[in-house]
Amino acid sequence: MNVAVLVDIIKETKTNWRFIFESPLYDNINFVPGQLVQLGFMESDEANGVPEYMVKRNYSVASWPDGSNKFELIITYLPGGQMSKKLFYDSKIGDEFLYNGPMGVFTLPETIDRDIYFVSTGSGISPFRSMLGYIDKQKIPTKNIKLFFGTRTKEDIPYYEEMKNYQKTIPNFEYIPCLSREKWEGHNGYVHTAYLPELTTLDKKPLIYFCGWDKMIREGRSYLSDLGYEMMKDIRVEIFG
Questions:
Q1: What CA–CA distances, in Å, run from 119 to 123, 126, 158, 176, 230?
Q2: Contact criterion met (CB below 8 Å) for 118 and 128
Q3: What's the predicted TM-score (pTM) here?
Q4: What is the pLDDT of residues 75-106, one digit of tens each?
């Protein structure tokens, strides 16, 4: 595994924090937007006779390849989680972690020749933020891209202003945050209620990416299966938890 130094912590929302890591052994971390890293640290419980072991978790990279040796993770606090406790309560700037990657195949097609719908909840926005940042900076041509993001209240939305700004800088991009517990000027209700009605009116199926908690993805896949959507051909998933 490689060494990553924690260089910044940004408290994006109450439960979603951004952790910036630097890999001191490399000048540049090259990866494909949408890929993940396996983050780890060594733990022990000598009082109970537990020898040293490694705690490992997979996280999608929220930043995009920019020629630097840094990468960003946005992580949702999970009560009782060993990695959550380490990052949210026991870590400070300068601490060293271990990591593998970036790796994985949850990435964009080489040629974007159909509309794309991103559907996410919580820190599941990570790979889509990476993809959108890369598309924006590299001026990659696309068809229509829509990001549907579901959460409870407005204060729970990560990267809110950044996503709104991409609507100005990325042609054909639309951002649809969805709130399930707070009435507001945007979409009210669960994330599935925002995109499903559209799918029945389209002439051509968009490519749909799901990233978030497993319950949300299971529900989404079930809805899409009823509409004739097929895994890999029309649907790609990255599951948290």
A1: 12, 11, 14, 10, 16
A2: yes
A3: 0.93
A4: 999 999 999 999 999 999 999 999 998 999 99
Give the number of other Cβ atoms within 10 Å of residue 208's Cβ: 22
H-helix or E-strand containing 73?
strand 70-76
Contact 42, 52 (CB under 8 A): yes
- At 204, phi and psi to the nearest 5? -130, 135
Q: Are 126 and 74 in contact (CB under 8 A)?
A: yes
First-residue to last-residue Cα distance in the chain = 23
Q: Is 40 helix (H, G, I), strand (E, B) or coil?
A: strand
Determine the residue type at 67.
Answer: G
pLDDT tens track for 117-162: 999 998 999 999 999 999 999 999 999 999 999 999 999 999 999 9
Cα 113–119–120 angle (5° rounding)?
Answer: 140
